[in-house]
Amino acid sequence: MPTLSTEDAAAAAIDLDLVESAELASVWRELGSHDVPLDQLGAAMVRRELLTGYQWDRLKGGYRQGFFFGRAKILYQAGAGSFARVYRAIHLDSGDILAVKVLRKRFASEADKCELFLREGRMGLMLRHPGIVRIDDVGKENNSSYITMEFVEGQTLRELVKIRGGLDLARGIDMTIQLVEAIQYAHAEGVTHRDLKASNVLVSATGKAKLVDFGLASFVEGKGKKPDEVGKLRTVDYAALETAGGVRGDDVRSDIFFLGTLIYLLLSGKAAMPDTRDRSARADPRRFGQIDPLGKVAPHLPRDLADVVGKMLTVKPKDRYQTAMEVRQALEPIRVRYGAADEAGQQRRVAQAMAAQPKAAAGTDKPKIMLVEVSGKSQDSLRQFFTEKGFRVLVTENPRRALTRFETVPRPASLLLLSSQVLGREAVEVFNALAPDPYLKKIPAVLIASERQLELAEDAAEDNLRRVLMMPFKASGLLQLVQELIAAAG
Asked: Domains plus CATH for the chain?
């Protein structure tokens, strides 16, 4: 693909409605000339937040599609799988942050895969519940199938448990109730999920669990709906379970079993059945009868809670809970008995976790800063400055990944330094996610914002451990603030 000239790239940015003429004129004035290298133009537009790094890379690469899907403007890629890519986007009318899931182009000519993908979106459009990721739009743009949905700031249940292990009792019960209520609602609407697994549960930064990916969902008889022929599609795991139990391929009790595996995982930190990609192993019905009782794997859990999960995981469907409502009713007295964790108890658990962290010998380790910055130039400048001042600097461009790393023990760094110049609201959301979380509230943080981001900076929740620093500032001022916050955190 031929390399664009600087003028061609600027013209393309306007033609594609990525920037406005007045905004580009301001960039030219800053640069002092149109006769500048291509990357200098791009750096200026990214620095001014007129384009994201992702948008600029596509633009200078000569791409003319993939910037918009429906009313969503793509900001950057947030994730990818073998079937689709997921992008962070902004709604052109409301300004809301969205996720856009786009089917990979290699499947565009395969009608069955396109239908399965779009079907996920159409199913989601019918479901409106706090525990289910909201679908806003489904369609095609330049032969690319897409689904627009709410953007959940967080991680999958699989990722969360991998980092934290099993959740504490109060949180575990709370998340269990959330998942059960979401499935209860879906079943009441006549929809079975058909693919419940840890990677299809998103957990927000505030601890809210949401189900995603109803691509294999089916209608069940009820509420005037007819059985859905497409719903006979099912995962290898569901097919094996239903073979073992001798039931048809759209039994609601299959969802209850696999919901039980999710609860087993989040409470114990261990999978009910070994994770494997071997289809023959997953298709073996015998593995469903080889699950260790939850009470054995996590003996600290209350017996009545372990018994509820055990009944959900019974191989014979008739011995399982018959409806999600029954599961909810069984969990309610347990929630009342164990779910209300007092603040003092939460603080004790946090203190115990922090006390368990290995201590470095005095003088043997430099203090560390986790820097979240997209601009390579700013990364280098801040890294060099803090290194000269005796710090070790860890760098990432992904604020969510940085937050995830702080959820580990021991902490990766003494302070989180976020730059919102390019990341914008995402940096603020991660900054604000620290204080409400008992695991993260003792982490000091600095949010750097530009003069153009006054409104954004006002949304940042400052306290004695978290401060906003507006540009321009003196390096000595930043250093002093970092040292004060680290000292305040102890």
From this structure: 1-64 (no CATH), 68-151 (3.30.200.20), 165-341 (1.10.510.10), 368-489 (3.40.50.2300)
